[in-house]
Specification:
Blueprint: E1 7-8, E2 14-15, H1 26-38, H2 45-78, E3 81-92, E4 96-107, E5 111-115, H3 122-129, E6 137-142, E7 145-146, H4 152-161, E8 162-165, H5 177-182, H6 186-189, H7 191-195, H8 201-213, H9 229-242, E9 247-251, H10 259-275, E10 279-283, H11 287-293, E11 296-301, E12 304-309, H12 316-323
Parallel strand pairs: 5-10, 5-11, 8-9, 9-10
Antiparallel strand pairs: 1-2, 3-4, 3-6, 6-7, 11-12
Helix pairs in contact: 1-2, 8-9, 9-10
Bound molecules: adenosine-5'-triphosphate and magnesium ion.
Residues 92, 96, 98, 116, 118-124 line the site of adenosine-5'-triphosphate.
Length: 333
């Protein structure tokens, strides 16, 4: 199969946004060239003949590979990748391929937005990164360390390094705002201590500071269910910050909010991204928000990464490629 879209990503690694791992193709074709050299069997006359015939192609494949490797190593030392997603796949029962060989890198301090139609795999991707789903293929690397399938002991530690907020906030409504935020320390203080509400004065101080950071320190002693949607999402952000994460995953954090409140919440995400240097991976639906807040965008279509780049590059043609011919951009003020 000829791939019309093979190109290099930021790291120089060749990738094809339209080709799945299962289908073979560009990546596998390239790797086959390397394997040929490594697993070279004893030569027979027939084999020598076959190799001679295929030599030009094999050499060009190897050259491409070498170029990729050298460039990737150089890029790695210059801009250390914080998170690397490598050929990530997730298949649910019923043969639903939610993710197909998705690969991209994230640098520390980035504000990366993931877009795509409903059902394209955005939530599945974030849930795999946060170990709420177990990938069925590929790798997730955090600072080069493989965290795809952590042991139970490691899982909790990883969950505190990579925090997550959700569309529906997931607060405990009958608890105060402050105790909801303190729950975020659960990954670090231990479950029993958290259940008994045994938080240190320092943790309480930190919780109030984070509430202040998202502009609702005055609501600390109010029941969480008395707050508006936007305020509840800000509490959820403060709770996530209690984990002292290095990465914050946000799964459609503003989808249930009105346009004005969307911007308030997105501005707070931008603030913590800039001021606390926390990397953000955020799923969004509205392209207006994407253009305003994203530093970089990856787009999924039916579980395949089809675009990776600057939000400004998403013109009408890319919009149609990402969302399909029949969709229309909806604007949000
Ligand atoms: N737990 C699950 N079991 C089975 N299939 C699932 C599960 N979660 C997601 N899927 C399927 O995986 C695919 C991707 O779903 P996902 O929720 O990741 O999409 P999404 O891009 O987040 O969509 P939306 O924008 O509507 O939130 C869909 O076909 C969905 O039906
Ligand atoms: Mg989703």
């Amino acid at each position: 199969m000829i791939c019309p879209t093979i190109r290099g990503n930021e790291t120089g690694q060749p990738f094809c946004p339209l080709m799945t791992h299962d289908q073979g193709g560009c990546h596998d074709g390239n790797r086959a060239g390397v394997r040929l050299r490594r697993d070279f069997p004893p030569l027979s006359r027939r084999r020598v003949h076959l190799i001679a015939l295929n030599l030009p192609r094999a050499l060009s494949t190897m050259a491409k590979n070498c170029r990729g490797v050298v460039f990737r190593r150089k890029a790695h030392t210059l801009t250390a990748k914080q998170l690397s997603i490598r050929n990530l796949a997730k298949r649910f029962s019923g043969d639903i391929h939610a993710l197909r060989s998705v690969s991209f890198d994230v640098e520390k301090g980035e504000f990366l937005v993931i877009i795509g139609l409903s059902g394209s795999g955005k939530s599945t991707l974030l849930r795999c990164i946060n170990h709420l789903h177990e990938p069925t293929g590929g790798q997730i690397l955090l600072h080069g360390q493989d965290i795809t399938r952590p042991r139970t002991a490691e899982r909790r530690q990883l969950r505190s390094r990579v925090a997550m907020i959700f569309q529906q906030f997931n607060l405990i409504g009958r608890h105060t705002v402050l105790s909801n935020v303190l729950m975020g320390a659960l990954g670090r203080t231990g479950t029993l201590k958290s259940i008994l509400g045994l938080f240190s004065a320092q943790e309480r101080k930190r919780a109030l500071e984070y509430l202040d950071l998202v502009g609702i320190a005055d609501k600390a002693n109010i029941r969480a269910d008395r707050l508006s949607g936007g305020q509840q999402q800000r509490v959820a952000i403060a709770r996530a910050l209690m984990q002292k994460p290095e990465i914050l995953l946000a799964d459609e954090p503003v989808s249930s909010l009105d346009p004005a409140t969307c911007h308030v919440v997105m501005d707070y995400l931008k603030k913590i991204n800039r001021e606390l240097d926390i990397t953000i991976l955020c799923n969004l639906h509205f392209l207006d928000l994407v253009r305003r807040y994203a530093r970089r965008v990856v787009a999924l279509r039916e579980g395949i990464l089809v675009f990776e780049g600057d939000p400004k590059e998403i013109d009408q043609e890319w919009f149609r490629r990402i969302y399909g011919e029949e969709t229309q951009d909806v604007h949000i003020e």
